[in-house]
Amino acid sequence: MPKRRDLTPHENAILLSEVENMCPFCTKPLMYEKKGRNFKLWEGAHIYPLNPNQEEIELLKDEERLHEDINNIRNFIAICGDCHKKFDNPRTVEEYRLLLSIKKNILSKSETRAKYADYQIESEIKEVITMLVEEFNEGALKQLELKALKLDEKANETLTRITKMRIRNEITEYYYYIKEQFVQLDSQYPKSFNHIASQVSAFYNSLSRIEPSQEVVYGQLTEWLSKKTGNSSLGACGIIISFFVQNCEVFS
């Protein structure tokens, strides 16, 4: 019978960071401060049970596992003590699948984020983001005709309807505006647009090889652009990624 191992301080920090200090079941904060000290409200829960009883073995016999070693950190997730008790007693397939799905998304994002450092973006793109956030001139907008929209040709069932609508609106509203900003950027820094477009395309191609969901890819591209430009506005970065959807560097 395997024994529960003690998680290292490093592993504890990883687990807490993965759920962003929030219980994935009830959203309760997992740490609290009192008299200048920080205290835990969470526990590292085994997703697949450490020592399942016969009923649990039967219940989960056909379910996916994240690692063959039950004590591997991939099989742990940080949840509050109350939810841990509810998760374990009694165990249900629905809750097991929920935690498994949450952890799989966490692991997928971690894998993608590890690539952020390998894919650069020209620093000049920050000027386009600044124009959107700080110096935006609504009167300069010129809408793209819907018949010229390329999104519907490239989007598949993995892109949610609400995200597709947002991308469509951003393309039709902002495409010409963003294009003009890149023209002006090229006048200051020759061929900067070609560099930026190729960098976006390269990272998109890298993501699409490991992630089949366009929804996830779009979100990761947006986050990557934000992180690589000093935590710039996610909204502005999303508009720029939408531009590259229309321009064919993304969802090609």
Automatic annotation (TrEMBL):
Organism from which the protein derives: Peribacillus cavernae
A GO term for molecular function: endonuclease activity
InterPro entries the record matches: ABC-3C_CTD11, HNH_nuc
Pfam assignment, any one: HNH_2
Superkingdom per UniProt: Bacteria
Residue ranges of domain ABC-three component systems C-terminal in the record: 114-251
Ranges for domain HNH nuclease: 33-90
Keywords carried by this UniProt record: Endonuclease, Hydrolase, Nuclease
Protein name: HNH endonuclease
